[in-house]
Write a structure and sequence with these properties.
By secondary structure, the chain is mostly helical. The protein is 57% helix and 8% strand. The chain has 2 domains: 219 residues, Rossmann fold (3-Layer(aba) Sandwich), CATH 3.40.50.620; 80 residues, Orthogonal Bundle (Tyrosyl-Transfer RNA Synthetase). Strand 1, helix 1 and strand 2 form a beta-alpha-beta unit. Bound molecules: tryptophan. Tryptophan binds next to strand 1, helix 9 and strand 4.
């Protein structure tokens, strides 16, 4: 019997290289080994985008196409839409009794996000909504609804997983052994640096390369990438370890090319402009098959809808079973 895996992502924009190298690539690599549920978390996206529902909706389909393009196989993975499974919302309500407000307020992931979203929640987080503060509870429902035993996530999500485990333990201690306590599966590289040298590639940081970026956009972004600031002239020796162009060569270029680039750079035998041009070529080569695959789904939106419907209906079956057992345990089964 394969173990059950559950992971999710918020549909707030297209996938970028940070998503791909941080998590997506790993999801593709393990999709044969697990019974895999992949949630497009539109309800969670609404917790901080409730005033832009049209964007969230559009991004559900964007994300679905991105996932299929990177090689998530819908015959192996149930890709589903969170909002279409009301059982998750039901569990969220039940779990609400098992977690204190102060525990949610102390959650490091939530704290960081509140600090990042001052425009929404105020300078001191004084306008924080009930929905946003409670999204870790809803995420615990996401995981447990499908009996997720393993959750592959980046390290920024660990406090949410811990919150989920606490809820599971509390539930099981009161109502009986019903829920499964999930384990994390940390990806080896959970964070990719941005083109500007920032430790994280992110949409809000404006330093990302998207899987859907055109050749012109990629050229312009890479031409502006940060290189060794101490290299002034073309033939100055430089330090590739502080250069974002070299960093990306290592992600998308072949090993032997990288070795050559590194030694030429250190010896001052390589100008940054040439190096950037080579990276642009390597990046386009890398993205080409992904974009070709994506094009198929762009041309066949019905196929994307069919995949999401099938994934969602499968996921719903599983969530229904869980809710049935949960309600029985909580003595609120009246059928
Ligand atoms: N919180 C995750 C993120 O922001 C998305 C997510 C929703 C998730 N539900 C999940 C991740 C369940 C793992 C398990 O990326």
């Amino acid at each position: 019997m394969k173990k059950t895996i559950l992971t999710g992502l918020r549909p707030t924009g297209n996938l970028h290289l940070g998503h791909y190298f941080g998590t997506g690539k790993n999801w593709c690599a393990i999709q044969d080994d697990y019974d895999f549920y992949l949630e497009i978390a539109d309800v969670q996206a609404l917790t901080d985008h409730f005033d832009h529902p049209e964007k969230v909706r559009e991004n559900v389909f964007e994300i679905a196409k991105d996932l299929l393009a990177i090689g998530i196989d819908p015959n192996k993975v149930h890709i589903f839409i969170q909002s279409q499974i009301p059982e998750i919302a039901e569990l969220t309500v039940f779990y609400g009794n098992l977690v204190t407000l102060s525990r949610l307020e102390r959650n490091p992931t939530v704290k960081t996000e509140i600090a990042q979203k001052k425009h929404l929640f105020g300078n001191e987080g004084e306008s924080i909504t009930y929905g946003f503060l409670g999204y870790p509870v809803s995420q615990a429902a996401d995981i447990t609804a499908f009996g997720g035993e393993v959750v592959p996530v980046g390290d920024d999500q660990l406090p949410l997983l811990e919150q989920c485990r606490e809820i599971v333990r509390k539930f099981n201690s009161i109502y009986g052994d019903i829920l499964i306590e999930p384990q994390q599966l940390l990806s080896k590289t959970s964070r990719i640096k941005g083109l500007d040298g920032n430790d994280k590639m992110g949409k809000s940081l404006g330093n990302a390369i998207y899987l859907v970026d055109s050749e012109e956009v990629i050229t312009q972004k890479i031409m502006n990438a940060v290189t060794d600031p101490n290299k002034i002239r073309k033939d100055d020796p430089a330090n590739p370890d502080v250069c974002m162009v070299y960093y990306y060569h290592q992600l998308v270029n072949q090993e032997e090319n990288c070795q050559r680039i590194c030694s030429e750079c250190k010896k001052g035998e390589r100008g940054c402009v040439q190096c950037k041009k080579e990276l642009i070529d390597a990046m386009n080569q890398f993205l080409k098959p992904i974009q070709e695959k994506r094009k198929f789904y762009e041309d066949h939106p019905d196929e994307v809808e069919r995949i999401l419907k099938e994934g969602t209906s499968c996921a719903k079956e599983k969530a229904k079973e869980t809710v049935h057992r949960v309600k029985e345990a909580m003595k609120i089964n009246y059928e």
